[in-house]
Amino acid sequence: GKKEPGRYRLLLEERGAASPDEVTPACAHFSRDKCGGCTLQHMSYEAQLHQKRELLLLRCREFGLPGAVVEASVGSPSAFRFHSRTEFKFFLRG
Question: CA 51 to CA 2: how far, in whole Å?
């Protein structure tokens, strides 16, 4: 696939069986390769929350925090039509 700084783009040639967490995206504009607003919308909301926590734990390990404690994500009462974004900046101090 095409390599960008720190990223890879791959072409899916064959798809196996669907995950039990897979759902039909609610947004008519959803596409994992075109719209970046809702990249996990093809997953159940519970699976999205779990995946986001796992991604945060991965980033913590990558930045030298392997023992970081990240509690379970707290979901919104509504799985759609809300926007919540958190950004973290990590600095190595020596």
Answer: 25
